[in-house]
Amino acid sequence: STTPFNRYKTPKWCHSRPTSLGLTDCMFPGPNYAKYRDLSPVQLFELFFDEEVWNMIVDQTIVYANFRGETEFEVTKEDMKVFIGILMVSGIVPVSSRRLFWKNSPVTRNEAVYNAMRRAKFEKIMQMIHFSDNSSLDKTDKYAKVRPLVRLLTNRFITNFQPEKSLSHDEAMIEYFGKHGCKQCIRMKPIRFGYKVWCLNTDDGYLITFDLYQGCTYEGNQQNEKIFGKCAATVLKNIESLPEDKRAFPYNIYFDNLFTSFPLLKELQERNYGATGTIRENKCKNCPLKSVQTMKKEKRGTADYATDKENKIEVCRWMDNAVVTVASTVHINKSTSKVKRYSQKDKKNID
């Protein structure tokens, strides 16, 4: 059977510092934002929610209303824009119930919402809003009811993406407390309950593409999951979602220890991508670093490193507030320098 490591050469570790890992000096063109500079916030929003998106939402909402027997229900594109606007306002100005926006109380009443749409109209759209035809849902996809909207938005995210050298891949949570088979609970997160999403972002937070986690593979590469693991395979899936012209750039991709493994680093390297991520001790595969338990006894700032020259991967472990281990195919430990950090023991910043 195929294991995560037998596709690659066995690591040959050493402590000598390399001068280059092969991808360090790749040239990368700067992003061009000229066509976006003079656009207003509304115009920027409409790059993603354009006429096709609005028409799809309106059409599918009317189809669902007719399916429910609400043949007299009507909604226009303008109504839907106001409806989405109120949802956005409720995210910025949270209240226990959106109904409070229409109350006579000066404490909760929102004049912009009150004057934009009647409460009964808002609640009726909330009851009927749909993004897909219930009669033709893909039963293998737990997100089939929102899949058309996801595809349209993902296409627009990629279209407006201006390639930047540094990309980040991580998980995000969409808060949700109701009942659904895809709802997750992740401890120690700002949002603990909701839908998990695998996201590929630029370093300033622009969402390039995303994949909704549903506990099973949907339009994914099962072979990658067998080789790299379910989490690491999402990195490759999101990259493959880019069109070929934008996939050809030599990006540097960063992720945390949920995804990092040597096979993934090597696979990205072979695709001409730099890769860097924190890595768990049990994934270091005989890397001759000081153990985490040993590093915890060392002075803060102590570092250890090892290089796999065969596969061009460098691993560095150092003692900060806790022990940190990072593996990279692009960044090398050429030298060390002093930085100031706050010391709990001394109650002041120290070198």
Question: What's the short story on this structure?
Answer:
With about 350 residues, the chain is of the alpha+beta class. The protein has helices at about 40-45, 50-65, 75-90, 110-115, 120-130, 145-160, 220-230, 230-240, 245, 260-270, 290-295, and strands at about 15, 165-175, 185, 195-200, 205-210, 250-255, 275-280, 305-310, 315-320, 325-330, 340-345, 350.
**What's the alpha carbon Rg, rounded to whole Å?**
25 Å
Low-confidence stretches: none
Helical content stands at 25-40%
User: What shape does the CA trace take?
Assistant: elongated
Proportion of residues in extended strands: 15-25%
Span from first to last CA?
Answer: 50 Å
Q: How many β-strand runs? A: 12
Question: Taking all residues together, what is the mean pLDDT?
Answer: 88
Would you tell me the structural class of the helices and strands?
A: alpha+beta
Number of alpha- plus pi-helical segments: 11
What would you say this structure looks like, in words?
The protein has helices spanning 41-45, 51-67, 77-92, 111-116, 119-128, 147-159, 222-228, 230-240, 244-247, 262-270, 292-296; strands spanning 13-14, 166-175, 183-185, 193-202, 207-212, 252-255, 274-278, 303-308, 313-319, 323-328, 341-343, 348-350. Strand 11 (341-343) and strand 12 form a beta hairpin. By secondary structure, the chain is of the alpha+beta class.
